[in-house]
Amino acid sequence: MIPVLDWSRFAAGTDPEGFVSDLSHACRDTGFFLLAHHGVPEALIADVFAMGDAFFAQPASGKRPLDIRRNPHNRGWAAEGSEALDETSGVMDRKEAFNVGFDLPATDPRVIAGEMFRGVNVWPEIAGFRETMLLYYDTVLNLGRALHRAFEADLGLPESYFEPHFTEPMATLRVLSYPANPSGEGIGAGAHSDYGSVTLLMTDGVAGLQVKPRGGDWTDVPHVPGAFVVNIGDCLMRWSNDIYVSTPHRVLPPKAPRRSIAFFLDPNPDSRIEALPGTGAPKYAPISGADYLRSRLDATYSPETT
Hints:
By secondary structure, this protein is α+β, with helices and mostly antiparallel strands. It has helices spanning 8-11, 16-29, 42-56, 60-63, 109-112, 129-155, 234-239, 289-297; strands at residues 4-6, 32-36, 76-78, 96-100, 172-178, 189-192, 198-203, 209-211, 219-220, 228-232, 249-251, 258-265, 272-273, 287-288.
């Protein structure tokens, strides 16, 4: 149900047509696939996990100044109990996270003007943290951009159609930590679909991630060491006029501590999200990338408590 796709077939040009055919089926069926041989160095992935561990090991008092609820640009620390991804139940997630956005200097005119999702990143005082996160961010961003070339081929779009929409995207790197919960009470991350174009998720192998295909039951997402779990987000589903599907998923309370690294690739803030050429009569009104993302984030975070 969730296929493993070999990225080298497309990237190296050994079987691009076959890769696009397999990608097409996955994006239209569950909207999930595993991406192997993607070229992101194992050592870099290990370094990001290690930096995340160092950050989350700090006491809450050391993380609180970076609280994401104090940041209008979706950057910083999300404390355990600050998010409810399942907007229907309202049950708070049992996880904490740290977000890194597109890196801009404080002198950038868009930062000074306070444009939506155009703020500076905030950083903990951990040696090497900033450099490691930004290297990973840039590496996976390039992979996400390249993946959109395969989407273009599948959707019959001109080559490089998506390129202008991901020059300075609202992409978010999020490292996550789920505490061990042997009792199984509550939820690690509530049932939700992702907001952006595409998500590239690296996990540590601890079970918990499940997907719910349309008309089906909750199903465990298999772990393939070193492979990304990739899923279509709501923005790309809307963009493709519902040709691609964004599927609900969740994280069950893990029996052992669980870590993951998510990269949410949203388009540029000013990108106009409307039905792609050749996808039929539009099912949705046009909207900017920034307005769409803000509408989704506003429903996720609980008010900050002291």
